[in-house]
Structure formats: C-alpha cells, structure tokens
Amino acid sequence: MKNKILFFFFCVLSIGLISFSIQSDPELIEFVFPKKWPKPVYNFAKNPLTEEGFQLGRKLFYDPILSRDSTISCASCHLQYTGFTHVDHAVSHGIEGRKGNRNSPVLINLAWNSTFHWDGGINNLDVQGINPIQHPAEMDNSLEEVIRRLSISETYPSLFKKAFGTSEINTATVMKALTQYTVSLVSSNSKYDQVQRKENGISFTDQEKNGLKLFKVHCASCHKEPLFTNTFFASNGLKIDSLLKDVGRYAITQLPKDSMQFKIPTLRNIEFTFPYMHDGRFRKLKDVINYYSEGINTEDHHLSSQLITPMKFNEMQKKDLLAFLYTLTDKTFLYNKRFSFPK
Amino acid sequence: MKGFLLCCLVFIHVHLVGQEKKSIQFVPFFNNLPLEIGKKYVLNDSTWFEFSTCRFYVSNLSFLNEGKLKEKVSEFYLIDLEEPKSLFVDIKNTQFDQVSFSIGIDSTTNVSGILDGALDPINGMYWAWNSGYINFKLEGTSSESTEKSKSFEFHLGGYLAPYKTIQTVYLPISNNSKDILIGFDILAFMKEIDFNKSSNVMIPGLNAVQISTILPSIFLVLPNEK
Asked: Is the dihedral of CA A263, A268, A273, A274 positive or negative?
C-alpha cells in the first residue's frame, strides 16, 4: 500500500515536472522566406527564433527605456510605415534634439546581410544594437544602465525568463532579443514578388515592364534581385558634404580603395523611405533618378566602375523606372500588425 | 633589477596555493616599481606618468614541453589592473618549459556576434561603431603627451587584414614547480611610443598595428622567490 502511494506521488510529481518543463520552454518559430530566395546569412543556430524572444525584442524595440533620458526608442528613427526608417529626416535624430551624421537606414531583410550601417562597421546583427544605445547623438546610454533598468522593471525579468530561461538580464540576452525582432522584418510580398510568383494573375503594366528592363540594364548589378542589394559597398560619386565630411567605409577599414564607399541599400519599399542617400540629401525619388541619369560627376576618381557611363534616361524612361520602383512597395509588410507597437 | 626583485617580494601578494593547483600571476610594473592605477610615477625632473586604465585580453593560453603542445586553454581572460583578482589565472599542474599566449582576440571571435563573460561588450573593451574587441587599453596622463590635457589613450585593436593587431607572446619557463609570475613592463611600452606622432590611438589601422607590435617584448618571466 505504502509503495502504491509512493508510486502515485511519483507519477503526479513526474507529470507536474513534465508539464512545467513544457510550459517553460519557449515556442520555436520558423524563419519563413520565399522559396527562390538565397539562404539567409544570419546564424539562427546561435539565437533560435522563439515567439517569446521575438515578442520581447519587439517590446524592447518600441521602449524608450533604452535611451538615457527615456525619450526615444529604436522605433523613433525606424518607423514601420516607412520601411523602418525615419521618414522626412535627412539625418537621424537622437535625444535632446541631437543630430547624427547619416540617414537612418531601413530595417528590411536584415537576415541576408553580414554587415550593417552605411559604412558596414557592424559585423554581426547581434551586436548592432550596442551602437545606437551608446552613441552620444542617438540614445547616449550605457549597457550597464540599460541592464540595470530592465532588471528592476516589473515586466522585463519574467519576459527574459520566458524567452531565455533566466531572469538574469545581460548584454547578450538584450541583444539577442532585439535581433529576434529585427531579423524577422522580412518584406517579400510586393507587387514585384507577386508577379515573380505568378500569384492571382497579377502582372506588370507596360510601363512597369519597361521600367524593369531599364532597371536590369542600369541598376540591378548593385541593387541585385530579389533583395535589391548585393549587400556590398560602392561609391556613387556624390560630392562629400563639407560639414559632415563623411568618407564612408574608409573610416572602418582605413583602406584608400574604400574611400567614399557606402553600403548599397535595398530598394524595397523605396516609395516610402525618403529622403534618400547616406545623408538624406535627395528628398524625392525623382531626384535620385535624375542624379543617376545625368547628375553624376564621371570624373570623380572614387566613382564605381558601373557608373562611369552616364545613363541619360529620357523623360519617358524616368517615368517607367519610377513605375517599376513603386512595385517594390509591400503594404503587407508596412502594415503587418505583428511588427507594430505591442499593445 | 635587484631593486625590482626586492619590490616584487615586498609588494606582491603571491597566493598560497596547494600542491594541486597552480596559477599564473600577471605582475604589472613601471620603472622597477609595481604599477598601480592613480599613482604618479616621476622618472626625472620633467618626465612623469600616471595611469587610469590598464586592461588587456589574454587568449590562446598554451603550455609546451620540449616543443610539443601539452595543453591549450580556450578561455579568454580580461586582465584589468583595477580588478586585482583578474591578474591571477588558474592553470593545470602539468610539466611544461614554455608558455605562450595571445594579447587580444582572434578574428573568428571578433565576428561571432554577441558574447558574454570576459567578452561581454559591457566590459568597455568593445568598439560599437566598428565591431570588434580592443585588445589592449592603456589610458592616463603624462608630461610626454602632446594633448593640452596631458592625457594619452591607447586603444589597440583591429582584426581585419592588413591591420590585424593580435600579438603572441612566447616565454621560456625554467622552473614550473611554483606559480608562474609573468611581469609586464609598461615603461618599456611607453619608451617605444612616439608621442609627437600620437598621444591617442582609438581606431584600428596602421598606427594600432605598429604600436601593438611593441607588446610581446614587454612581457617577461619573473623569478618566484616564494
């Protein structure tokens, strides 16, 4: 009898332990991307995507707790509706009205990138977030302070426990959570994508078709399909801003060949990510096309070889190209509730 | 040198350890005196130095015997003068006649994303704008500095070719029956610095590489008199 009771308690205990361990395991989620796309370069094995990790990262992304005076969050400069950039702002804005040197980059399809920032100074998505947190012209905070605030908050320790199995918060778990959110920002459902997948009988207009032809000849070697970037660096001949004095990738590598080279940005959702270029100097997409068509100083010795022959588009061609670029707008991405402010 | 040895005996608190355990103790010194943070070292009427930070990474710690590798430790150690405990590294009690280690962090680790422990960027040995570890950090003030504030800052790092800065130190060990004392001579480092060229190095590049090559020569094995 005694043995039976003991066995009964053992069973109850085991079931309890099993169900407890099931409950406490974060729910793994699959990183979904279109079949014909290249494989992502982000190493998911080191930071497996989970629902709890993603939601924690999302909360952190929208939380001004990360900035020194708790006034700005990541989302202040990376707004979803504009492809996660700071629309209408030439350069990024930090706390106390401080201004940065560069246009805030879009956060789109980051999983296919191995370098980040306009100069590629960041070598892994997991460490990207450290820079805006510490940068005096951005959040001007310290990692110690961020971890201190999160650790004493009412909500965060339990969310970290759910996501990473421990309520002890450190740099690695903060960064991994943020990455789980940002790496999930995949835009792959524009009209262009639907046409490629031959979905619902959607097709390009004649104007868009003409634009695509021009694009393939003049733009696609750098803005390579389907990501619309080859993720490398190039100089498009823009004259150096006399105040910002930004030499681009040279500041990172100290190699003369990298002088004035900047990361080639994706063109996905380009309709909404204005202003354009690394310093936001062009307000309209039309200005960008005009620049590439007839504005480049082909004598510039930094200029990438692909741009040496002027494109010289006529007015009709410019309109065609613009029409094609608008097909890269992905409203299911820009309005995806899963990426929006967590309520 | 005799004066220095005496200082070693007087100032260094060698950990008393059992027969099973052994350690390497890193011993910072300057002009034959133990190096302390916040203390002014006067060399002559016009030359003085004061240090506020001295931190560096030790990795690839290896023990060799008769030219053969006996043991390689995968741990990364952050040696920090403000954290006296960090100067002691526990080691296995094996037979060896040579110790080698790297000053700094290898390229693979530099691109491995977010890491913790000694490699947590919170330790202030990480560049956030140009991802990568600072291998060696020395800050302070000196009569030799060309800055108005007399400050100097050497943040040596960079893992990308051609500006790799990681250095390797090889030290022969004549007696490994006791704890190993590895001294590092910051005056020897300072003597090699051309202050007219740079009182501050805070980015990877040629300057950082040239100054980093000084590092292996400042390490030496000290006799353990205990």
From this structure: positive
